[in-house]
Write a structure and sequence with these properties.
- The protein has 347 residues and is mainly alpha-helical.
- The protein has a domain at 14-91 and 147-213 and 303-340.
- The protein has helices at 11-16, 19-38, 42-47, 53-71, 124-136, 168-183, 190-211, 215-246, 253-271, 291-301, 304-313, 318-327, 333-340; strands at 39-41, 82-84, 92-99, 108-110, 114-116, 119-121, 139-146, 159-160.
- A three-stranded mixed sheet has the order 1-2-8. It has a three-stranded antiparallel sheet with strand order 6-3-7.
- Strand 4 (108-110) and strand 5 form a beta hairpin.
- The chain starts with 10 loop residues before the first helix and ends in a 7-residue tail after the last helix.
Length: 347
């Protein structure tokens, strides 16, 4: 995904890259260009009689959310002022990888943002080709379609057709999450950035629903959030069990694979007691659960409770909270983890 202000800034970097890397950035530029080309201001889309009323309803809601984000959440709102219909279900397909017997995520380096724990492609075919290459190298791999992503404030990201199907609360959470990335982003620390955006967005949804006097919507949001967190706790616990399993001694590779599978089987057994109507769809395609897929959850949620506690310590003052988070740019990973009360994660 492009995270620079224009294509020309990438040219010197492309000249230094290997062929496969050049191909990656070329497809990224092409994908971003498609989004720019197909985007038009929200008010133009709202005035277009050919645009479906259900799309217009979502655009009006997003305008409301942008206004609330600016006035009450102190978030930058350069993004989501335009609408883009890509006529496909996902904007990008993201590849995650991890060694077969480790929960440590593979990382890829990008200009300006440092190392990230994923590789994004605008074409599903390209993502699957990357997945197969990694599988041949012995990695656990997971590929997932993504409905939205952020250029971190470098570009004005548009509203995409890919996420308009969400409920009001889900749409609000997504908008606030992506706008949070433009507020504070620490290069090279995926877990920190995603957990901060998750915690800040969830708090934003609560404030938005409260401002509307929507008590029922707030109760439903909290209930769904708790159910999702129940799944998160199960999956993070599974990740810890895997770490312990990989630290063991085994007579053969096959024996270690069996130990690994027992951990995942235990996770799925516990999951049967949890409602399947949660965002992680833990029952779906159980054979695809592996180290890489588990890491996608750890990335977004391992540090969320630390950010929630920090916001509470600031008395709910968002400006003070954001300032404190931004000040952590000068710290290293271990120092940030100590402040958040989360064990240092060197994955």
């Amino acid at each position: 995904m492009i995270k620079t202000r224009n294509w020309f800034a990438l040219l010197p970097l492309l000249c230094l890259c290997a062929c496969s890397t050049v191909q990656f950035y070329t497809q990224a530029i092409s994908g971003q260009a498609e989004i720019w080309r197909k985007s038009r201001p929200n008010d133009v889309a709202l005035a277009d009689p050919s645009v479906a009323e259900k799309v217009k309803q979502r655009l009006r809601l997003i305008e409301e959310l942008r206004a609330f984000a600016a006035s009450d959440l102190h978030l930058p709102t350069k993004s989501f002022g335009k609408y883009c219909d890509l006529k496909r279900p996902y904007v990008v397909w993201v590849v995650y990888a991890a060694p077969e017997f480790s929960t440590e995520s593979k990382k890829w380096w990008y200009p300006l943002v440092g190392s990230l724990k994923y590789r994004g492609f605008f074409d599903e075919k390209d993502a699957r080709q990357e997945m197969e290459k990694l599988k041949k190298k012995g990695y656990d791999v997971f590929i997932g379609g993504v409905e939205a992503y952020s250029t971190l404030g470098y570009l004005a990201d548009p509203v995409l057709n890919t996420f308009l199907h969400r409920t009001d609360a889900e749409l609000a959470e997504l908008i606030f999450h992506e706008l949070t990335h433009a507020k504070v982003f620490i290069p090279g620390d995926t877990d920190f950035n995603e957990a901060f955006a998750t915690a800040n967005a969830e708090d934003g949804v609560r404030r938005w629903l409260h401002s509307k006097g929507d008590g029922r919507g707030l109760r439903e949001f909290e209930a769904n959030l708790e159910k999702n967190r129940e799944v998160v706790r199960l999956m993070l616990g599974t990740r810890e069990k895997l770490k312990a399993a990989y630290a063991g001694t085994y007579p053969s590779v096959e024996a270690e694979r069996q130990a690994k599978q027992r951990v995942f089987d235990g996770m799925l057994k516990e999951a049967r007691a949890i409602s399947p109507h949660v965002r992680f769809h833990i029952h779906h395609a159980p054979k695809t659960w592996n180290n890489a897929r588990l890491n996608t959850v750890a990335t977004y949620y391992t540090m969320v409770t630390g950010f929630e506690r920090l916001l509470k310590e600031k008395g709910g003052d968002l400006e003070a909270f954001h300032h404190e988070v931004a000040s952590m740019r000068k710290l290293n990973n271990e120092q940030r983890m100590k402040i958040l009360g989360t064990p240092a994660n060197h994955d």
